Amino acid sequence: MSLLEMSGITHHYADKELYREVSLELHAGEHMGLVGQNGAGKSTLIRMLTGELIPDQGLIKWQPRLRLGHLDQYARIPGNITIRSYMQTAFEELYALERKMTEIYREVANTGDESKLKQAASCQEKLEAGDFYGIDSRIEQTAMGLGIHAMGIERTMSELSGGQRARVILAKLLLSEPDVLLLDEPTNFLDREHVEWLADALVAFRGAYVIVSHDASFLQKVTNCICDIEFGSIRKYPGSYNEFVRQKEHLRRDYERRYEAQQKKIESTESYIRKNIAGVNSKIAQGRRKQLERMDRLGPPLQTHPPAFRFQELAAPGLVALETRRLVVGYGQPLLPPLSFKVPGGQKLVITGFNGIGKSTLLNTLVRRLAPVSGDARFADRVHTGYFEQELAWENPVLTPIQYISNYRPDLDGKDIRKHLARCGINQTLASRAIETLSGGEQSKVKLCRLLLTPCNFLILDEPTNHLDQEAKEALRQALIEFRGSVLLVSHEQSFYQDWADRVMRIGK
User: Fold this and answer.
1) Measured between alpha carbons, how far is 463 from 467 in angstroms, rounded to an integer?
2) Residue-level pLDDT at 312
3) Residues 489, 491, 494, 495: is their CA dihedral positive or negative?
4) Per the confidence metrics, is the pTM higher than 0.85?
5) Three-class SS of 414-456
6) What region holds the ABC transporter domain (predicted)?
7) Which of 453, 415, 455, 408 is nearest to 431 (CA)?
8) In the list 115, 132, 182, 415, which could disulfide-bond 127, CB 3.0-4.6 Å?
9) What's the rounded mean pLDDT across residues 268-290?
10) pLDDT-based confidence at residue 150 (cuts at 50, 70, 90)
């Protein structure tokens, strides 16, 4: 059964055509992964499916009376409501039914009119069918699975960080059990163990869903079909993510073979025509010319240019690059117990821990953006740091990437800036657009371009892969392997760092 029908969709964003007369269907039970390079239009498609955005052309039709659940990280929520109370709003209809039943029993007790007991019994049956008496248990299980208990389930929503808030919204969404889930990068704010719990929950989900993610291992676990957005088209592949990769590579190679074979035929035919058009075989040559004119010619294979990252490396600072002594971080109140650790010159250290526990606060304290609550952190004298912060925040988001890099490195001319941006996957068109109009992945690449132009021997990176596509992740991973200085990385993606990290340190509870 088709839950969703998209037909003839064409849409532009700024001066870029994202889709050209594309069609797509979502069927009952399908667990769909939506993939594509940064800026291909994945998040735009999700916004179209929710009705937030109307396509330039085409039709989007949902089956009537479907309940859609969308992970809206910016949803308006009363700040004074507790996490537990907010999660309970997933069951508003059942709580209303229970209040109705209680009121009926109260009325019967006051009036002695037992004629309404059947109505109360009907309410009771509906409550049992909806597992009303298991609500508290379901909330507890979901809160534990997504690490919400570690945050404090009785805290108010106004106290939460952006990532914590998104996690609670996701919890309510899962508890609501809609017919269709629409999730845009749901793992960005989750730690590894919570990603694993979410994967299990999604596999068991009885409805359909569409998930945007750049996490290949996550997609492999939770999807049974993949939609690939590329060069203005959308192609649907049945099967797992790994099967999609194999199918796409097979189709690419098959197309290249057919293109090469056609080019050889065209070349040999044109050569025959040139040699024989004026000779005794001119009629044959004219016939072959007509055949060429009628030929349905294949276009050249579309080529992508993956990013190429390389850090500007300074000489190593010595035996110990960073040392902390009973360092306490927080905003007035401590977030973590005192931390004492050393990072030797050239060591690559990964820090993990629950989302919201204080990892970003630690990094901001190390780079002197925040003052420590107590204790001390000292870099060696010859250390020069390069910092990548997690948040996509810009002092002036209307600047273009060219202007942004030029302000940072006024010694570079426009040609050099464009070259550096292109190496990071920001082409000429993107380089001339306002940063605020770029996708999350494209904005991350602009930030990486600035970092690559920062001479350093100690990299401090806070979740740098959150918005990056697979090609950019691999390019960054390779650049970090080749970097001979020290690295301090916060990441929830074990597959990104497991083959090059020297040490993994877990902080918090």
Assistant:
1) 9
2) 94
3) negative
4) no
5) HHHHHHHHHHCCCCHHHHCCCHHHCCHHHHHHHHHHHHHCCCE
6) 4-256, 309-509
7) 415
8) 132
9) 87
10) confident
- Output the CA–CA distances (angstroms, integers) from residue 112 to 53, 102, 106, 109, in the order listed: 56, 15, 10, 6
Q: In the predicted model, is pLDDT for residue 405 greater than 70?
A: yes
User: How far apart, in whole angstroms, are the C-alpha atoms of residue 454 and residue 218?
Assistant: 33
| Helix H or strand E encompassing 331 | strand 330-331
User: Quick one: pLDDT at residue 223?
Assistant: 96
Does residue 73 carry a pLDDT above 80?
Answer: no
**Domains assigned to the chain:** 320-506 (3.40.50.300)
For residues 270-280, one letter each, b for 16 or more C-beta atoms within 10 angstroms of the residue's C-beta and e for the rest, the string is eeebeebeeee
What is the distance between the alpha carbons of residues 312 and 310, in angstroms, rounded to a whole number?
Answer: 7
225: closest CA among 207, 201, 209?
Answer: 209
Greatest CA span in the chain, whole angstroms? Answer: 113
Q: Look at residues 175, 251, 181, 179 and name the one whose alpha carbon lies nearest to residue 212.
A: 181
Q: List Cα–Cα distances, 443 to 45, 165, 391, 436, 484, in angstroms.
A: 19, 22, 10, 8, 26
Neighbours of 258 (CB within 10 A): 12
Residue 24 has a pLDDT of 94
CB atoms within 10 A of CB 367: 16
- Range with the lowest mean pLDDT among 88-92, 128-132, 278-282, 286-290? 278-282
Using alpha carbons only, what angle is made at residue 140 by residues 137 and 141, rounded to the nearest 5 degrees? 85
Specify whether the CB–CB gap between 20 and 11 falls below 8 A: no
| pLDDT at residue 158, as a whole number | 87
How confident is the model over 45-70, as pLDDT tens digits? 999 999 999 999 999 999 999 999 99
Of 131-135, 215-219, 299-303, minimum mean pLDDT range: 299-303
How far are the Cα atoms of 91, 103, 311 from residue 95, in angstroms, in the given order? 6, 12, 57
In the predicted structure, residue 1 carries a pLDDT above the cut 70: no
> What are the angstrom distances between the C-alpha of 12 and each of 56, 133, 266, 360, 385?
7, 49, 35, 36, 40
Nearest 5°: phi and psi at 241? -65, -45
Query: Could you please report the per-residue DSSP string of 107-143?
Result: HHHHH--GGGHHHHHHHHHHHHHTTGGGHHHHHHHHH
Residue 393 DSSP label: -
So what's the pLDDT on residue 180?
96
Amino acid at 387: Y
Interatomic CA distance for residues 199 and 193, integer angstroms: 10
Sign, CA dihedral 472-475-481-485, equals negative
- Beta pairing, strands 458-462 & 486-490: parallel
pLDDT at 458: 96
